[in-house]
Amino acid sequence: MTGFSESEERLALRAAVADLGKRYGGQWFLKKARAGEKSTELWDEAAKLGYLGVNVPEEYGGGGGDIGDLAAVGEELSAQGCGLLLMVVSPAICATIISRFGTDQQKQEWLPRFADGTLRMAFAITEPDAGSNSHKLTTTARRDGDDWVLSGRKVYISGVDEAAAVMVVGRTEDARTGKLKPALFIVPTDAPGFEYQPIEMDIVSPDKQFMLFLDDVRLPADALVGAEDAALLQLFAGLNPERIMAASFAIGMGRYALEKGVEYAKTRQVWSTPIGAHQAVAHPLAEAKIQLELAKVMTQKAAALYDAGDDMAAGEAANMAKYAAAEACIKAVDAAIQVHGGNGLTAEYGLGALVAAARVNRIAPVSREMILNFVAQNTLGLPKSY
Ligand SMILES: Cc1cc2nc3c(=O)[nH]c(=O)nc-3n(C[C@H](O)[C@H](O)[C@H](O)COP(=O)(O)OP(=O)(O)OC[C@H]3O[C@@H](n4cnc5c(N)ncnc54)[C@H](O)[C@@H]3O)c2cc1C
Known about the structure:
By secondary structure, this protein is an alpha/beta fold. It is 50% helix and 15% strand. It has helices at 8-34, 40-48, 67-79, 86-101, 104-115, 231-267, 279-307, 311-339, 354-363, 368-379; strands at residues 121-124, 140-144, 147-158, 165-173, 180-188, 194-199, 209-219.
């Protein structure tokens, strides 16, 4: 970013990704989702063009760009109706954590595959009994010689069926204090003792969510990512990019719905003018546009802070951006459906299918309420109720 506009390179990247997204588009995406198929062709083509590895360091074959570049890719694909959910976890969280905190060996092993997009790595933090309260995580790793033995349950984990590995947030026992502290492990999806089951969701998407069962999964010493002592720092370093990507994903989805709504409002006519001339139709679209733009500016700020190395300030901005983007997306989808009247809920127009997908943005990866808690406590200094 220079001033309030993105660099020429970023804008060119957006245009190129939008061209790719247009060749696939929302109808293609919905058809895949409804047939129970994956969006693999788009992932592979985007990967081949280097778009999924834009943030991976050049020395590992990536684009050497930053999280703002990756967010631009995510937003533009989403704005064409074919967002790739796994971008939020694989390149944004997992590649970031490994490139910032992985050992040389881990970087050599994983980063080239993030760079060329041949690898998808899922990310598992949520547990059935912990939910938003990550202090209650019970997935635990114990030492056995040089190995780790990991056991626990995870829920709602996206894309495990397509992933070669999952980055699992667990705990290890502190040798000095006996207390459990967070630690990140890379677990291959074919490891003995690792099983997963799909969760039936009412979301129309090629990307699915899974329950994970880890029963005494034996892992080599180097499955632990980075330092055992720095896990919290590492986790936050990965969760800020996740929020920035989730915001971009939501903004793209909102842009997609808004564009459909505007197009329809310009052409549909049931009285003497196109329906878009009625302010009751036009204003919700204008409001959605304003909210999406506001969310985008905050997302760009969060990315700029993150890329400048200010993790604390980036955390606040990324939470605010994710909140704003989710609300803007839900509003845009709702406005677009309303403008379409009955057509808003036909399979042909595909907007009804966006309702649950848009709503996800208010729940995951961090809920609206937990963001409000964060801002109330950290930004405003209010006391905590929980
Ligand atoms: C489509 C989808 C994909 C997902 N993908 C992944 C993934 O890839 N990896 C992963 O690890 N997780 C994933 N998740 C999980 C997601 O991050 C969680 O659903 C989310 O963090 C909320 O946790 P929970 O569902 O357990 O809700 P709960 O924690 O049970 O919360 C329920 C409700 O109570 C509210 N609440 C809880 N505590 C408080 C409080 N202190 N103050 C006010 N309100 C509160 C919450 O905001 C929420 O509205 C995914 C979820 C979905 C829906």
